[in-house]
């Protein structure tokens, strides 16, 4: 029956299953025959030997199956795999690529911060906190608007004040009619622009024009008086000549009283009209000490605001020797630099001498006018001859300029009398 089959184990799994089934059937049959024979009470030798051989084959099959299972387990192949699936399994990278992309996204995706939870007391009503707006922000915005409007208004007022006094016209006039005093003219205009740009001041502006004879001090004073009379009115400009308004010492009490009352009336009127008056004092070197004290009292008056808004121009030839000496000693350096350091170096020397004369000049801004050269004197002659109706011939002008005395320093010639004698010589033509 089952004794003719080979006992060699096959590597094919379906064959193993069929062989196991046949052997099981044979074993059951042999066991049934043995039971029947036992029941009859008789058992032959051949029957016993066949039974032993069947047991040996079963043991060999069991050992073979156990070895096969161990080999397949070592190879990683499941023993009980589906033998009915005939479709080939195709390996692709789709699953691996999808997994890699998913891991990359999870790695690069920013982690969301967990919002803090709001904890409420157990016995209170759960109401989210309200954000209160600070009133300081509104106040700050309002303050910024107010400051902006004030700054804008101040800028507009500055322009209005400067335009009111027509300083551009004054600058053109001075540069056209004043020769050889560019630095002094620019300094004077700078002080006027700074002071006249506003109406409220803490002290009056005091400017002192100093220089030798004939350099144009009185000429500048006359042009200032003429210009300000046209822009602020005749009543707010005073041109005071000491030798004319107070010729003798006996008149000093009356001169002092008249000066005080006149200045008081002018500053009061200027305060009403919101304008700045100008006081021009010429020939200050001849002014007595009593009048100098009066002018200083007017400048230092702080009792009322109208005295603070005023311009004082002091014209004199004080310290003319110091100015002449400085110009002659520094003629070469002044020619090279264009006289930019004249007032910077000369003013300290002038202050020391003027303080000895009177303390009034401590309150003044010094504007020194220097010696005129021969070319400047020739310009004075040409301007005066044009006014008198003469044709300014160049050779004739040079001949007239040569008749005046000069300081000779190298190749430069500085006039000793400036343009003071020009008018008299032109009148003789």
TrEMBL record:
<keyword id="KW-0812">Transmembrane</keyword>
<dbReference type="GO" id="GO:0005635">
    <property type="term" value="C:nuclear envelope"/>
</dbReference>
<dbReference type="Pfam" id="PF06309">
    <property type="entry name" value="Torsin"/>
</dbReference>
<dbReference type="GO" id="GO:0005524">
    <property type="term" value="F:ATP binding"/>
</dbReference>
<keyword id="KW-0547">Nucleotide-binding</keyword>
<dbReference type="InterPro" id="IPR049337">
    <property type="entry name" value="TOR1A_C"/>
</dbReference>
<dbReference type="InterPro" id="IPR027417">
    <property type="entry name" value="P-loop_NTPase"/>
</dbReference>
<protein>
    <submittedName>
        <fullName>Torsin-4A-like</fullName>
    </submittedName>
</protein>
<feature type="region of interest" description="Disordered">
    <location>
        <begin position="1"/>
        <end position="45"/>
    </location>
</feature>
<dbReference type="InterPro" id="IPR001270">
    <property type="entry name" value="ClpA/B"/>
</dbReference>
<dbReference type="InterPro" id="IPR003593">
    <property type="entry name" value="AAA+_ATPase"/>
</dbReference>
<dbReference type="GO" id="GO:0005788">
    <property type="term" value="C:endoplasmic reticulum lumen"/>
</dbReference>
<keyword id="KW-1133">Transmembrane helix</keyword>
<dbReference type="GO" id="GO:0016020">
    <property type="term" value="C:membrane"/>
</dbReference>
<dbReference type="InterPro" id="IPR010448">
    <property type="entry name" value="Torsin"/>
</dbReference>
<dbReference type="Pfam" id="PF21376">
    <property type="entry name" value="TOR1A_C"/>
</dbReference>
<comment type="similarity">
    <text>Belongs to the ClpA/ClpB family. Torsin subfamily.</text>
</comment>
<dbReference type="GO" id="GO:0016887">
    <property type="term" value="F:ATP hydrolysis activity"/>
</dbReference>
<keyword id="KW-0472">Membrane</keyword>
<feature type="domain" description="AAA+ ATPase">
    <location>
        <begin position="203"/>
        <end position="334"/>
    </location>
</feature>
<keyword id="KW-0067">ATP-binding</keyword>
């Amino acid at each position: 029956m089952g004794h003719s089959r080979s006992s060699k184990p096959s590597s094919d799994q379906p064959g193993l299953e069929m062989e196991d089934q046949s052997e099981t059937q044979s074993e059951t049959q042999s066991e049934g025959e043995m039971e029947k024979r036992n029941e009859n009470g008789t058992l032959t030798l051949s029957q016993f030997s066949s039974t032993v051989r069947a047991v040996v084959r079963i043991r060999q099959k069991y050992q073979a199956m156990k070895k096969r299972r161990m080999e397949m387990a070592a190879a990683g192949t499941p023993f009980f795999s589906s033998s009915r699936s005939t479709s080939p399994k195709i390996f692709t990278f789709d699953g691996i690529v999808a997994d890699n992309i998913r891991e990359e996204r999870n790695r690069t995706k920013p982690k969301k911060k967990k919002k803090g939870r709001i904890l409420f007391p157990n016995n209170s009503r759960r109401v989210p906190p309200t954000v209160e707006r600070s009133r300081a922000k509104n106040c700050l915005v309002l303050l910024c608007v107010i400051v902006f409007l004030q700054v804008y208004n101040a800028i507009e007022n500055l322009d209005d004040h400067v335009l009111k006094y027509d300083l551009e016209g004054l600058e053109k006039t001075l540069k056209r009619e004043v020769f050889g005093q560019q630095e002094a003219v620019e300094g004077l205009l700078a002080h006027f622009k700074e002071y006249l740009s506003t109406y409220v001041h803490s002290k009056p502006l005091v400017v002192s024009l100093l220089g030798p004879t004939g350099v144009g001090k009185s000429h500048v004073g006359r042009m200032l008086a003429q210009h300000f009379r046209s822009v602020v009115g005749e009543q707010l400009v005073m041109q005071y000549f000491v030798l004319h308004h107070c010729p003798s010492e006996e008149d000093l009490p009356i001169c002092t009283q008249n000066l005080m009352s006149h200045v008081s009336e002018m500053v009061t009127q200027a305060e009403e009209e919101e304008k700045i008056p100008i006081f021009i004092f010429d020939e200050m070197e001849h002014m007595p000490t009593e009048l100098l004290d009066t002018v200083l009292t007017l400048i230092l008056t702080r009792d009322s605001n109208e005295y603070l808004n005023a311009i004082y121009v002091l014209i004199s030839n004080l310290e003319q020797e110091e100015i002449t000496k400085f110009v002659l000693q520094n003629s070469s350096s002044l020619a090279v630099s264009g006289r930019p350091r004249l007032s910077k170096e000369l003013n300290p020397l002038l202050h020391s001498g003027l303080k000895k004369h009177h303390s009034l000049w401590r309150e003044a801004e010094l504007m020194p006018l220097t010696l005129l050269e021969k070319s400047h004197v020739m310009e004075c002659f040409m301007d005066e001859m044009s006014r008198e109706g003469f044709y300014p011939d160049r050779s004739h002008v040079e001949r007239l300029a040569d008749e005046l005395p000069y300081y000779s320093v190298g190749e430069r010639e500085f006039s000793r009398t400036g343009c003071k004698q020009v008018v008299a010589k032109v009148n003789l033509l």
